[in-house]
User: Which sequence fits this backbone?
């Protein structure tokens, strides 16, 4: 009979291990966009304006961005099991802190802790996929990871608003903390770094032959990567492209649709959820198209231009809601071109620097949310006319146009930068 250690893990075991890590990524995306459907409650509860609310939401991004580079190193040294368990436990603690916060600063501390803790999920998922799945399954796992994230964003839309209206935002956040804590326990009990830990064969060559992975200097690798012009361009470009999506869907879209277009909160949340879904669908499709074209730059330029036109129409032209939804879907789809940017970045450096390049360029979309969410809030407060509703400030169309003009400005910068990137023709730099 074949010994257990000579077989790769069954699919149900592999997907269970990977899926628990994916659940933390789902929770991270849920927490990322959750403030969008509770802007009125948070402004009233903490007596804050748009600028403070933008910062409260952005505290998630501050720590998330800072964790991107060290997370890969920690995952290599701790292993995904310990890292995911610690991440889920700290995310639960951060959710508890946010839910019970007596003031703005405690709530911000909770958001900061949540961002830092869930930042470990994506890298850990990829590492688990490398060990638990055959190489030809890696792309499927990566695509499903993005789907899990968007599912979390959709849950933070209409379903979350229903729960908040029924129970209040604090009890709902306490329940979120309890579920995240339960996930930490499940990860510790079920997840293993490698199939060898359960007596199966590993799909990772280094784990199979017992050779330890080489460790290199983090700072040296970063210096090497940042010496390539493309990396700088591909780091800055998503700030406008993905930042616009995260700023609109993640915070300011719902109040904009309520206060300017007169929609109820649940309908507004449904529209922003559709934007996230279109964004998720556009990523793999545009990435596949760029592979078939054998070129990165032309499609990246074309889709960025389309996104710029879409946001310009939405922000500055008086269009009916149905047309705005159609344009939002097209704009979200084109904004999925950040997948092209990731492939572009990895091909722009030698193979040995691919991981560092991916980590650095992954900061671009997050920097977009981190910078633009509070910046839009600051602009809204500058144009505030003194109106309030239910204890929360309300803003008119002129204020939102001023705030969202920052999104358009960043997209113009992105569009100007991409043509200066060196084309890789879909081939790895040597």
Assistant:
């Amino acid at each position: 009979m074949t010994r257990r250690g000579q077989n790769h893990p069954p699919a149900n075991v592999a997907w269970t291990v990977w899926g628990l890590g994916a659940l933390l990524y789902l929770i991270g995306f849920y927490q990322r966009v959750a403030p969008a459907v509770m802007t009125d409650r948070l402004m009233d509860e903490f007596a804050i304006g748009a600028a403070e609310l933008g910062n409260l939401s952005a505290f998630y991004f501050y720590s998330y961005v800072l964790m991107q580079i060290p997370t890969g190193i920690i995952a290599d040294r701790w292993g995904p099991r310990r890292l995911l368990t610690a991440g889920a436990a700290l995310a639960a603690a951060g959710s508890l802190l946010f839910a019970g916060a007596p003031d703005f600063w405690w709530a911000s501390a909770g958001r900061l802790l949540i961002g830092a803790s869930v930042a470990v999920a994506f890298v850990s998922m990829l590492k688990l996929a490398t060990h638990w799945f055959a190489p030809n399954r890696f792309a499927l796992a990566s695509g499903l990871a993005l789907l899990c994230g968007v599912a979390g964003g959709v849950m933070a839309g209409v379903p979350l608003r229903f729960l908040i209206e029924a129970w209040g935002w604090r009890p709902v956040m306490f329940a979120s903390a309890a579920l995240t804590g339960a996930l930490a326990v499940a990860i510790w009990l079920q997840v293993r770094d490698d199939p060898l830990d359960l007596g199966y064969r590993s799909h990772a060559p280094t784990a199979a032959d017992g050779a330890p992975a080489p460790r290199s200097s983090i700072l040296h690798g970063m210096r090497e990567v940042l010496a390539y012009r493309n990396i700088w361009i591909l780091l800055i470009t998503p700030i406008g492209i993905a930042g616009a999506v995260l700023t609109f869907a993640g915070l300011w879209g719902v109040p904009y649709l309520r206060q300017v277009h007169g929609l109820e909160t649940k309908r507004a949340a449904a529209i922003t959820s559709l934007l996230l879904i279109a964004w998720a669908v556009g990523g793999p499709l545009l990435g596949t198209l760029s592979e078939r074209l054998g070129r990165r730059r032309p499609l990246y330029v074309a889709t960025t231009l389309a996104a710029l036109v879409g946001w310009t129409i939405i922000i500055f032209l008086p269009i009916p809601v149905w047309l705005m939804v159609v344009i939002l879907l097209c704009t979200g789809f084109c904004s999925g071109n950040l997948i092209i940017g990731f492939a572009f970045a990895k091909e722009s450096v030698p193979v040995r620097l691919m991981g560092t390049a991916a980590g650095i360029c992954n900061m671009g979309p997050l920097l977009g949310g981190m910078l633009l969410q509070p910046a839009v809030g600051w602009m809204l407060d500058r144009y505030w006319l003194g109106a309030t509703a239910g204890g929360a400030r309300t803003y008119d169309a002129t204020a939102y146009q001023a705030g969202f003009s920052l999104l358009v400005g960043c997209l113009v910068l992105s569009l100007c930068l991409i043509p200066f990137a060196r084309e890789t023709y879909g081939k790895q730099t040597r």
Q: What stands out?
A: The two ends are 46 Å apart (CA to CA). The chain has two domains: 1-215, 216-430. The chain has a mean pLDDT of 88.
